Amino acid sequence: MSRIDSTFVSLLQLVWAVVSGCQTIFMISRAPKVPWESVYLPFVESITYALASTGNGTLQMRDGRFFPWSRMASWLCTCPIMLGQISNMALVKYKSIPLNPIAQAASIIRVVMGITATISPAEYMKWLFFFFGATCLVFEYSVVFTIFQVGLYGFESVGTPLAQKVVVRIKMLRLIFFIAWTMFPIVWLISPTGVCVIHENVSAILYLLADGLCKNTYGVILWSTAWGVLEGKWDPACLPGQEKPEADDPFGLNHEKNAPPNDEVNIRMFGRVIGSVRKSKRRQKWELAPAHLEDRIRLSDEESDDSRPKRKKKGDARDYRRKHRGGADDDDHHSSESESEKKNKGKKKKSGKGKKKDDSGSEDDLEVGNGKAKNGDKQEFNDINKILRAMKRNAGTLSEKSHSDDSEGKRESADHSMC
Questions:
Q1: Where do transmembrane segments lie in this chain (predicted)?
Q2: Which of 35, 177, 189, 355 has a CA that sits 20 to 30 A from residue 82's CA?
């Protein structure tokens, strides 16, 4: 077998690397009306073919076979991204299982299986890994076909000439996708990596044509449709002349109430109807005028304030406690003065009665204050009074305990001195 890189193939790969680089620069110049995928895909392709044209995109294995690592790496980096672009058309589910992210995961598994089959020395292992990769590809085809059908279903229901133009574009994208993606496993089979029917140089040219279809041509048509006609959203309401529905809940305040129901879409595949496939509707997020936006923010804040139970601040309760604690201290001060006067006169029994009267008087003052306050504050004042009385009792017990401890200490010291 001759060298992989002949002069003609190397020159063709270099030209295609330059074309992909020019497409990358063009997409960058269209910003901000261009998604990052439209820049990323041709950029990766330009690097891949630049490496292949210089002979750095292949590795020779121990058994003499050549492994095109740059080509395989580009598949691993671009296939999930292309499926993500298609997933923007619709979100489909099988019962409660989302199919879009599963298809992207299956594409990664498929490429890994293809790489493993390419470098496997044993024939049976090579075809086993190829079978696993082909199974993943069939699953990807079914999901992508369903997504395209759901997209066509949405735009065909509008019926306007511009919507029909989008329908034609979607059918064109579907045709390009299935033709280009089917070329890769077929070329792999007939190239030296499979049954070795064609030369490696021929397979390199066929791979270049497939990449030009599924990345360059497909990417330009997809970008011109999504951003040239639909304002970047695969939604029939984004067509010019269609009335945009008002976003009743732009901030997600009523998430469950405004969640749109899922549409049952009957997709036909190989003559059979898949009735359990559903299209998950997206909530519309339209740009609102600044004044309208401020009104919605103010109304939502007022509604949330009205519905939220009003709570008293900690500072208010602290002020109440300080106020009534001070009043209780004044009452204690007056009661102590009255007790000292009565003790000096030698009327111990009457002093006890006077103290009870003063305490009851302070409680009456608090009760009068509670009567003036709101009904919700009475319980709080009563709790404060209970706390104050408990604090007085604790202070008395502590003082008695300290006095008893001091007396016991003195007795022990006296006993030691006697010994």
A1: 72-91, 103-122, 128-152, 172-191
A2: 189
- Name the β-bridge partners of 92: 279
Closest CA to 99 of 265, 247, 302, 324: 265
Domain locations in the chain as residue ranges:
7-238, 315-345+358-405
Cβ neighbors of 254 (< 8 A, separation 6 or more) are: 248
Distance CA 117, CA 75 (A): 15
- β-pair partners for 273: 268
The arrangement of secondary structure in 7-238, i.e. its CATH architecture, is: Up-down Bundle (1.20)
End-to-end CA distance of the chain: 116
DSSP codes joined into one string, 112-141: HHHHHHHH-SSHHHHHHHHHHHHHHHHHHH
> Three-class SS of residue 346?
coil
- Is residue 154 packed enough to be buried (19+ CB in 10 Å), middle (13-18) or exposed (0-12)? buried
Q: What is the C-alpha separation between 378 and 296, in angstroms, rounded?
A: 39
- What is the 8-class DSSP label of residue 262? P
Angstrom distance (rounded) from CA 110 to CA 179: 18
Max distance between CA atoms of the chain, in angstroms, equals 130
- Which amino acid, 333? H
Letter for the amino acid at 366? L
Radius of gyration of the chain (CA): 42
Per-residue pLDDT of the chain (419 residues; tens, 9 = 90+): 445 557 899 999 999 999 999 999 999 998 888 899 999 999 999 999 999 998 888 888 888 888 899 999 999 999 999 999 998 888 888 888 899 999 999 999 999 999 999 999 888 999 999 999 999 999 999 999 999 998 888 888 887 888 888 889 999 999 999 999 999 999 999 998 888 898 889 999 999 999 999 999 999 999 988 888 777 777 777 676 665 554 444 444 444 444 444 555 555 555 555 544 555 454 333 333 444 444 554 555 555 555 555 555 555 566 666 665 655 555 555 555 555 555 555 544 444 544 444 445 444 444 444 444 455 566 666 778 778 888 877 777 776 666 666 666 555 554 444 44
Which residue, among 66, 75, 14, has the nearest Cα to 44 in the 3D structure?
Answer: 75
